[in-house]
């Protein structure tokens, strides 16, 4: 994470993030799908979506009792229509063939969303038949949702005929993600984000096939979330209205789950937790030295236990994020009762930091979680971390290769390339950031679980200019769907330089 002046801006710019994540490949002429699928073949025929375009599910093992697929299909129609009135005179289109519906077959009956589930799909749209149906096959309903997103990007509203057309049929697309963890972080401590905004972010994540919303819920500045076990914690919110009830958190998790997005909840201990002491001042070393959390106080660990116990009822993702970055231990060495405790335990301040992180890890494990920790914990005492730890890189290059060489898993999100509040970072810099840099051993490569990127490595453009046109097209598509994605051209993420077409900015 981030200390100092950058902190305030952390991740405020997520309304524009979508222009720079995911990956692609340009040279397939006229193929404006983002991210680029693993394999694509297409033809030269045009079809149109019949007025009664419908979902069929014969042959599916998946029963869709919770309506995830049905709702996904309705959202597909919604984004494809994109608020246009589709009122073509269907009797007049004998020259074009009608696509009567989409036949979706899902093999797994389970709709459990979890880390590492099968997200692959196969989409085919034939050019002929009587009647013609598109076919989508997937192991899981979440793979099918990815297929619906791809399908939506093949549809175009024709302003002359007022109907929705699919060009370049027949299509055969086989696809699956390169990385199992494709995340986006939102920080609701430094900047409270209202629920509709969080839902918009989740929608945009689904459009780009990202699958983990990393919810950096609380930090030093504010504690917006209700914690039933310790009901005064959210006294640390910025204001009474900048808060989330636990029911709100449930709503976020369910909304995300229905779109194939997991929620990774974070508490950033002990170094980013000053706001906790507004409700419970004994969590501070002292009233004038408030951070990190008091390592000498058993109550500190009771509170962490209470939070993770409440989390485990709501945040069902396999991982919880325990932070652990930027721990300045000076309050521990200058506060008399903490200093005495350190002496009694025979710990110096860096050993106390290690003790804190490892004890928090044990609490997380006791609630059934595996844990993610920021890279400082690895840099300082990597050989002591629980083997179930995922190390989250942020400081810069060179870390992931050491983490995986030590046999631990790693999430790559180095700030120099992938921090969204660095407004001057250009999209080619985002695009060219390669998580497996310097990691050649295949066993070690498997330990890098993310943080972004869908497209297979050999399909990524080596020169970002090759994908500029396709990305500009995708940015316009996001704008059409109500996502305020920023222009590509210009310095980093900025206002458009001049009036002009969305496709050229
Ligand atoms: C629709 O198109 C058919 C065939 O071109 C034509 O006969 C009919 O009048 C049109 N209907 C409307 C409402 O325009
Ligand atoms: C650590 O915290 C102390 C007291 O809060 C502060 O004086 C010092 O500047 C901090 N050190 C760093 C490196 O930020
Ligand atoms: C703390 O103790 C460890 C082990 O004795 C030592 O390696 C480390 O340098 C010490 N750290 C500080 C800040 O004194
Ligand atoms: C790759 O290795 C080089 C040389 O050791 C190092 O300078 C660079 O930071 C590494 N890059 C990444 C992204 O790890």
UniProtKB/TrEMBL annotation:
Its EC number is 3.2.1.52. Keywords: Glycoprotein, Glycosidase, Hydrolase, Signal. One of its GO terms (molecular function) is beta-N-acetylhexosaminidase activity. Residues 1-30 form the signal peptide. One of its GO terms (cellular component) is membrane. It is an enzyme of class 3 (hydrolase). Residues 179-435 form the Glycoside hydrolase family 20 catalytic domain. It catalyses: Hydrolysis of terminal non-reducing N-acetyl-D-hexosamine residues in N-acetyl-beta-D-hexosaminides. The active site is at residue 326. Residues 33-154 form the Beta-hexosaminidase eukaryotic type N-terminal domain. It comes from the Eukaryota. GO terms for biological process: carbohydrate metabolic process; glycosaminoglycan metabolic process. The keyword Transcription does not apply. Belongs to the glycosyl hydrolase 20 family. This is Beta-hexosaminidase.
């Amino acid at each position: 994470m981030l200390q100092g002046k950058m902190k305030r801006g952390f991740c405020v710019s997520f309304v524009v993030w979508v222009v720079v994540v995911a990956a692609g490949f340009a040279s397939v002429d006229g193929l404006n799908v983002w991210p680029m699928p693993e394999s694509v073949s297409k033809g030269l025929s045009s079809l149109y979506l019949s007025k009664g375009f419908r979902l069929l599910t014969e042959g599916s093992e998946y029963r869709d009792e919770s309506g995830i697929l049905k709702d996904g299909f309705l959202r597909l129609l919604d984004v494809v229509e994109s608020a246009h009135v589709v009122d073509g005179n269907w009797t007049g289109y004998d020259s074009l063939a009608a696509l009567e519906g989409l036949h979706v077959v899902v093999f797994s009956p389970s709709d459990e969303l979890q880390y590492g589930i099968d997200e692959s799909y196969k989409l085919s749209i034939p050019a002929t038949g009587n009647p013609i149906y598109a076919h989508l096959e997937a192991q899981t309903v979440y793979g099918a949702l990815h297929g619906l997103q791809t399908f939506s990007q093949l549809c175009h509203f024709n302003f002359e005929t007022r109907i929705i057309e699919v060009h370049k049929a027949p299509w055969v697309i086989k696809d699956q993600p390169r990385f199992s963890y494709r995340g986006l972080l939102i920080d609701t401590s430094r900047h409270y984000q209202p629920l509709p905004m969080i839902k918009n972010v989740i929608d945009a994540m689904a459009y780009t096939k990202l699958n983990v919303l990393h919810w950096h819920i609380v930090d030093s500045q504010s504690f917006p979330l209700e914690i039933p076990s310790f009901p005064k914690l959210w006294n640390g919110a910025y204001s009474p209205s900048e808060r989330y009830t636990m029911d709100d958190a449930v709503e976020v998790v369910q909304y995300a789950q229905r779109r194939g997005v997991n929620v990774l909840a974070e508490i950033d201990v002990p170094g980013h937790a000053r706001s906790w002491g507004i409700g419970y001042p004994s969590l501070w070393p002292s009233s004038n030295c408030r951070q990190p959390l008091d390592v000498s106080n058993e109550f500190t660990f009771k509170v962490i236990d209470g939070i993770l116990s409440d989390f485990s009822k709501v945040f069902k993702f396999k991982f919880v994020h325990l932070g652990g970055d930027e721990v300045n231990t000076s309050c521990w060495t200058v506060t008399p009762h903490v200093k005495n405790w350190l002496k009694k335990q025979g710990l110096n301040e860096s050993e106390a930091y290690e003790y804190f992180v490892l004890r928090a890890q044990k609490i997380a494990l006791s609630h059934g979680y595996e844990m993610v920790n920021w890279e400082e914990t690895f840099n300082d005492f990597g050989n002591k971390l629980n083997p179930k730890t995922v190390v989250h890189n942020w400081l810069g290059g060179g870390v992931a290769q050491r983490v995986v060489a030590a046999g631990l898993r790693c999430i790559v999100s180095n700030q120099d390339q992938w921090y969204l509040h660095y407004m001057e970072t250009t999209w080619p810099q985002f695009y060219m950031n390669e998580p497996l840099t310097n990691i050649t051993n295949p066993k070690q490569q498997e330990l890098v679980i993310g943080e972004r990127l869908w497209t297979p490595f050999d399909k990524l453009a080596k020169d970002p200019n090759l994908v500029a046109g396709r990305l500009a097209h995708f940015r316009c598509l996001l704008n059409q769907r109500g996502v305020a994605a920023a222009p590509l051209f210009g310095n980093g993420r900025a206002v458009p330089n001049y009036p002009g077409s969305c496709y050229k900015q």
